[in-house]
Amino acid sequence: MTAVLQAQGLGKKYGRRWALTDCTLDIPSGHVVGLVGPNGAGKTTLLNLASGQLAPSAGSITVLGGRPGAVPAQLAKVGFVAQDTPTYAGLSVADHLKLGARLNPGWDDALARDRIERLGLDPARKAGRLSGGQRAQLALTIGIAKRPELLILDEPVAALDPLARREFMQGLLEAVAEHRLSVVLSSHLVSDLERACDYLVVLVESRVRVAGEVEELLATHHRLTGPRRDPGRLPADQHVVSASHTDRQSTFIIRTDAPIHDPAWTVSQIGLEDLVLAYMDRPADNGRRPTLEVQR
To answer: Are residues 169 and 249 in the same domain?
Structure first.
């Protein structure tokens, strides 16, 4: 399967500060990818590099087989909605569509106008008088009407209320189904990732802690609860992601493909939020370093 994004040793430096260092990633096409991690992990920098707005300071990145932003044809393949869902306050909705048509050779005017009509947006209304949710929908419409192969969204719903978030995500999923887009979506809201994403990347301190299809990740991660035990005593095929202990009890989140037969353990499945938090909180050395990538 064609890779939608590949990074090898990727880094970006601002002055003396590295915002992203030694990031290696390989994302297959045809997915809605959730990119999640703590503040300062390098998520926005990675997405700006992928969209061609920044040039790497180290390493390499390719998007859809080409260097981001290298030529107009490469730019046309990627749609981008930034964190503040940028629109021009003094321009009307119709003006935004006209601007989109002028700037994008593959612009689908019928798609854009149909979507604006379905959203109930007044074409004559200035963007500055729209609600936050309406501005986000306008920005998404422009990104989709560009007819990209890849749509990059950098926390597009972070500032929206729950209803506006739900409507935005519903519109995104409809567009993905209709136009067969690949999507990379950065978000702090795991509930949005659960609803929309079928592929997950957890980025912490510029490094990929885990990456893979959500269904597979959830099937291979388990919570073990039982008598206090050192992680080093677990079977070699049980990769410890996180561990916590009381005086008498240990709780581990592990990744394994093998059945768990030890009767001392109570085994339970974990949800996506548990999985994300386990990798975000995992110490640098917890007794057994887990395999960071779950990719095929």
So the answer is: no
Q: In this structure, what are the phi and psi dihedrals at residue 17, rounded to the nearest 5 degrees?
A: -105, 130
pLDDT at 296 over 80: no
The 10s digit of each residue's pLDDT in 224-273 is 999 999 998 899 999 999 999 999 999 999 999 999 988 999 999 999 99
pLDDT of residue 69: 85
In a domain, 210, yes or no: no
Which one of 150, 176, 205 terminates a domain? 205
pLDDT tier for residue 285 given thresholds of 50, 70 and 90: very low
Residue 100 lies in a domain: yes
Is 294 part of a structural domain of the chain? Answer: no
At 31-47, the pLDDT tens digits run: 999 999 998 899 999 99
- Which residues constitute the domain of residue 60? 3-205
pTM for this predicted structure: 0.88
Per-residue DSSP letters for 225-261? EEE---GGGS-TT-EEEEEEE-SSEEEEEEE-SS---
Residue ending a domain, among 205, 234, 269, is: 205
Phi, psi (deg, nearest 5) at residue 160: -95, 155
How far apart CA 138 and CA 141 sit, in angstroms, is 5
Question: Own/partner pairs for 9-14, CB < 8 Å, 24+ apart?
Answer: 9/58, 9/59, 9/60, 10/46, 10/49, 10/56, 10/58, 10/59, 10/60, 10/61, 11/56, 11/57, 11/58, 11/59, 11/206, 12/42, 12/45, 12/49, 12/54, 12/56, 12/57, 12/58, 13/57, 13/58
SS3 category, 74:
helix
What gap in Å lies between CA 34 and CA 196, rounded to an integer?
Answer: 8
Is 291 contained in some domain?
no
| Domain total of the chain | 2
The token pair that represents 60 in the structure block? 């390499």
- Tell me which amino acid residue 145 is: A
Q: How many CB atoms lie within 10 A of CB 257?
A: 11
Do 200 and 231 belong to one domain?
no
